[in-house]
Specification:
59 strands, transmembrane helix, membrane, 4 helices, flat, Ig-like_dom_sf, 6-stranded mixed sheet, disulfide bond
Amino acid sequence: VVGTEVAIPCSVSDYDGPSEQNFDWEFSRDTDFVRIVSTWDSTFTSEEYQKRVGRGDIKLRRSSNDAVELVIRNIQPADQGRYKCSTPSTDATVQGNYDAEVQVKVISDGLSVSGSKARSSTSLRLSEGDSFKLRCSATTASPEHTHLHVTWQVRSGSSWRDVLSLTHEGKFQPGPGYEERYRSGDVRLDTGANDTYRLSVSQASSADGGAYRCLVSEWVRGADGSWQKIQEKSVEIATVSIQRTALDVVISTSNVSVTERDSLDLTCNITTDRSGIFQAEVMWYFSASPDDTLSDAQLLLSMDHDSVVSDSTLISLSHVDRNSYRLLVRDVDVEDSGYYFCEAAIWVPLHNGSWHKVVERTSAPVSVVVTALEPDYDVFLNASKTPKFSDDPTELNCRITNVQDTEANIRFSVSWYYRQRLPGDDTEPEELLASMDADWALLPGDRARERIQNGEIILSKKSADTFSLRIQWTSESDRGDYFCVISAWSRHRNNSWVKSKDVASASVNIFWATQDYTLTVEAVKLKPFFVAGHTFEMTCKVSSKNIKTPRYSVLITAEKPLADQSSPNGTTRIISLSQDSVVRLEDWTDQTRVDGVVLEKVQENEFRYRMYQTQISDAGLYRCVVTAWSPGGGGMWREAVNGLSNPIQIDFQTSGPVFNVSVHSDSPTIYQGEVADLLCIVTMEGMPLEPDDMSFDVSWFAVRSFALDREPILLASLDRRGIVSQGRRNGSSELSLERISPLEFRLRVHGCEDQDFGNHYCLVTPWVRSATGVWQREPDIRAKPIFLSVKMDVLNAFKYPLLIGIGLATAIGLLSCLIGYCSSRWCCKKEVQETRRERRRLMSMEMD
């Protein structure tokens, strides 16, 4: 269109050379081209265009290294013609095209946009919820077949926002935020006579205020079917200001106090500056807190804009006058105490007969206190049974006395509390033992929950005015102050029970004098001197004080020397006897002497411990650990006090031999598949012994690491009776263990594998026969480990694969030769017909 700005883009692709390309622009009306402008040659411009280029009416705008735009401002009809864009070649070889042309057609400006009745921008002052209409006229006299695109816009700041458009394709398009209002019909765009376009807005809000303009653009369809915008014009139509509707909602009274069973009367007054036709909607809410929102509050009653009141039995809502609405609540009770507030809204009619809410306000909450009709009564607590000793029963009775002003809709429940009394005047906070709700359902507290469930504490309602608490077996932890709280419950109109009053009784102290438990244990060795193999015997005598009918449990412990501690803390639990005379072996692990220890009850306070065929390894300090038990509740026993006896020492004086153990191997490094020989050699120092007077338990272990940082694995063992046992292993190698001499034991690993490597050692337990013929077990002796390495034999590893490969290759070669011979001999044989030759002798020349 004449007078507009035109930008013609030109780009190049698939080129070699520098990334930034240059462009030349030329123009032709008929046949010859005139040079306009160039990106790299300032003298390129012809004389005809030098002034326009110098003024900036024609310029180049580079958008990237390979694209530019020719910009022509204020285009004229003389600029109609063909424009050619060319780029100098930077390629090594000429390929593709290096110029392109475009035809530009310039048409006259036939677009006209104006406001209604050719007036300039006007101002409209509207109230919230009103409707308004704006008109604009748009015509075009273009010689081309063009289409108009009309858009209504509003400016509420520095930017324009689209309201509703009629596109050049004849489609309605609402702006962002107006989609829902367009679908509901609140925002419409209508076309009228004389090319007018009317914008209609209903239910105007404050967001609709601002300056409105009509933006019209002209579009034309190109030869390829695409649409092109050729020009755009706008005109401001009006400035619309929306005034908010003022609404004030007040409850006539501030704070109200009402007695239970009376009526509550509240009035909500509304004031508004709205004129004309409108209706008010009123809703009353109730909330327990003044800070609750409407979503958290309870809706009591409502009256809509058609004066329809929601249904309720005890609550009514009436319209006193045009601006007053009365709420009446009859027969109030305590649960009606809280905060009341009313919400009012103004509704205005629309053109289609519907109603629109323009403003809504909520009053400040009014505090309403309903005073309950409390009953008057006293509470008395007494102890009908008090304990004299531990585990005696305790019973407390809580009575309701001097009951006055009670109705048939009152019932009572009880809560029991306990408070521990500390030395001096200090007290602990009270703890809830149990309580009853309005239905007399029992609710145990944390302190007594388990005992109530087990029946140790019983709570009951003996009569209409008496509640009792009974402790079947009272313990020292139950000593302290007890009190009860009687709660009065009132029945409300919805048949629910609400607590109206609590009255606490005076406390009752449960206490009895006690003395500390004492327990004395004395251990006595019956035989002062004995040797290994004989029976060790000791008794434990127990005496106690201040314990009611005690029973005792006994545990025998042994403290072994540092070199032989089977327990981490140095103490071994041997055998125990419970208070019910049940004997149990604790940590006694000698399977050959399962019956070698005995613990029995001689008298009520005396116990005897025997250990038969004592061994040198039994040396140590032996004690009696005694626990005194007293009878508890429910036939159970309760631990009272513990006691420890004096130690009894078992010490063997011997001058027997001293054994040493070592591990030896002639070849600690072997190859896979070979046999590893490991010798466990026992040496003896001191007094020599005959081979028949000594025997050994030998066990072989392996640690599969270099640094001995893993658990040892049992390989095999040989006891002193010659029985061999093997441990569980994952490998395929075989083990054998044998005694080759009285003091030498050999372990063989047959067919060694990689997993057989590691540190190997033997553990030897010597057994020596004493002069009396009893076998004595000596302490275990562990040898220093030896590391066994297993290597791979490369020659043997590859020998069989090579032989198999050579054999297969030879067999395949012979088979190939055989197949070839047979094929040539029988399958591919051809018969050749030989030409028969005559046998004639040459004649001699003389006969010729």
